[in-house]
Amino acid sequence: MEKGDLILGVLDRDGFLRVDSKKLLMTAVSLQEAVSPESGVLKVSSEDAGKMALVSGIKSGNVIYSATIVEVLSPVSAIIVRTLLKKGILTLEDIKGEHAEPVPEVKIPEEDRKLCALVIGHKKRSPGAVNVNSSISEFEFNEDLALRIEKKVRTTEVQRIYRRTYRELPGDINSLDPDFVVSLHCNAFNKKASGTEILYYHKSTRGKRMAEIILRHLVGCLKLPSRGIKPKTAEDRGGYLLRYTNAPCVIAEPFFIDNDNDLERAMNNKDGLAQAYASAIDEISEAVV
Q1: 3-state SS, residue 107
Q2: Listed residue (200, 192, 188, 190) closest to 138, CA to CA
């Protein structure tokens, strides 16, 4: 286990972390130091003893060297984390990503930044597909998602676009003269279909490359079945937008909102999904447009 990896367990007051049936000694001593790990045992306060915690360090045998208590979870958070890990919805790698060191800001002159039109599918009075059990709609999910994406892009300018009417949408987008367009949607079918797919205009080479990049990032995040990238003509559903925007455009369908399991996975990792979109948008700015 390399430095910086996370270990989830229950804190003991005597400086141990209980992981399953094992007790691991937490020490500030590094693995390379020629001293006893007991000389640097981490102190656990009485109020934290017995609580679940995330600990960073290097595990060797029954010792965690260079140990740091990253976060002590509240009882409610501990239950949620345990449940998500058990169901396979969350992994320790996901948690590690949330606690990673901040990525240094990339300084790109404003005039050199590409502009992404980020379209929020549907609108408040016509919200698109809705999950029956939670009443969450495409519009509601994606409006919040778009705000999160805006905060995470590093090398690209992002402009949110709200739909007035579907017929006016391409013109509204074209008036901004963006370099590329990403439209946020959610799929729906029969409450059982699952997976991630990206739509692009069948004659657009750049649209196809964009679709491949976004699909890779979204599948890597949600880990739902990949339904691939799908070329569309102007007559196909969604094809009008893909055809009549001047800039290359894709429609992203990361999951099926009418499938409770798909929606649960997306809701439980919404910040990660926003980061996946942001990383894809930055990659498109550098590699495609």
Answers
A1: coil
A2: 188
Residues 6+ apart with CB under 8 A from 72: 11, 48, 51, 52, 53
Residue 77 CB: number of other CB atoms within 10 A? Answer: 13
- How far is it, in rounded angstroms, from Cα 155 to Cα 168? 29
Q: How many helical (H) and strand (E) elements, i.e. helices and strands, does the chain have?
A: 8, 11
Q: Which residues contact 98 (CB under 8 A, 6 or more apart)?
A: 271, 272
At 212, is the secondary structure helix, strand, or coil?
helix
Q: In 7-20, which positions are buried (b, 16+ CB within 10 angstroms) versus exposed (e)? A: bbbbbbeebbbebe
Domain assignments of the chain as residue spans, ordered by start: 6-98, 110-287
pLDDT in tens, 203-244: 999 999 999 999 999 999 999 999 999 999 999 988 999 999
Residue with tokens 């590093």: 154
Closest CA to 66 of 100, 91, 33, 108: 33
- How far apart CA 137 and CA 125 sit, in angstroms, is 11
pLDDT tens sequence across 78-118: 777 777 777 776 666 666 555 444 445 556 666 678 999 99
Q: Which of 168, 166, 162 is closest to 124 using CA atoms?
A: 162
Report how far residue 98's alpha carbon sits from residue 144's, in angstroms, rounded to the nearest whole number.
19
Residue 3: what pLDDT?
Answer: 44
Class of domain 110-287: alpha beta
DSSP for residue 119: E
Helix ranges (DSSP H) in the chain: 75-87, 92-98, 138-152, 169-174, 205-222, 239-244, 260-268, 270-287
Residue ranges in the chain whose pLDDT is less than 50? 1-3, 99-103
